[in-house]
Amino acid sequence: MDEDHHRYQSSDEEDFQPDVFGQRPSQPVFSKPIVLWKDPNTGSARTFKTLLVGTAFGGSTFLHSLQKKTLIGTLLQPGVDLKDNTLNVDSPFNANGNIYTLDADPSVAIIPVHYQVKDHDSLFFARTLLDTIKADRIIVLDTLSPSTYLSGSYDTDYNLPWLRLLKTTGSQDVPQIPTLEVPNLVQNLGAALVSHCEIRGKKDVFLVLSLQEAIYGKAVTTKATIQGFQDALAHLGLESVGRAADFNLVQQILQKSLDKKAGQRRMQDDRLYA
């Protein structure tokens, strides 16, 4: 069988791992998400004080902009084209879920997930992630679509950044961030991570939602959306982490981001189309 299309098995991990972090990644075929560590001597699971997960595209853009971080591994999702997306791990446009630690505080792990994990894949992604990375506190950075968000009042004036919060039972209160109003629902990866933690009875798990803008009927992520994540981390006691965000890099990402599937620009000015 062609080496670029071999079927991944657990016994293949040692041979496969150098390809992911080297210069010529291969294209495995596997049925569920897997976590690979850059250091082959790393055990199957690692423990951190805080885990930050950013969903595509607002949360992932914010976490990618954090400066002085070190790559320690990656979470691979079935269907992601490794050849096109892992040669340059510093690119914010890769469809990957690289795992980093902050140089200033290695007890903080961050995962910018640069692709949309759909509902039918989210449970497997969440289970793999939480079985592999143990953290005392988990914060998920996600976005709210203005087309589906209900404020409860028809004359609400949305002053961005507009933050909302969901947390697991027993988690500390965060009075600075209002709770997401009923009957709003969250979907995909953010919902799966929080639900999985709630079922396991895990405390100190927070889902931070920053409202996107609506331009010509499209939900777009703006610099104000991403600014909300910095404010939220300050409210959650991680102000120093939020200050590590490079908003010049954020601006570059918003200006240069391309929609490869559509073959056209996904942004105008400082807006990133979801």
Automatic annotation (TrEMBL):
<dbReference type="InterPro" id="IPR016565">
    <property type="entry name" value="Proteasome_assmbl_chp_1"/>
</dbReference>
<dbReference type="GO" id="GO:0005783">
    <property type="term" value="C:endoplasmic reticulum"/>
</dbReference>
<protein>
    <recommendedName>
        <fullName>Proteasome assembly chaperone 1</fullName>
    </recommendedName>
</protein>
<dbReference type="GO" id="GO:0043248">
    <property type="term" value="P:proteasome assembly"/>
</dbReference>
<dbReference type="Pfam" id="PF16094">
    <property type="entry name" value="PAC1"/>
</dbReference>
<feature type="compositionally biased region" description="Basic and acidic residues">
    <location>
        <begin position="1"/>
        <end position="10"/>
    </location>
</feature>
<feature type="region of interest" description="Disordered">
    <location>
        <begin position="1"/>
        <end position="27"/>
    </location>
</feature>
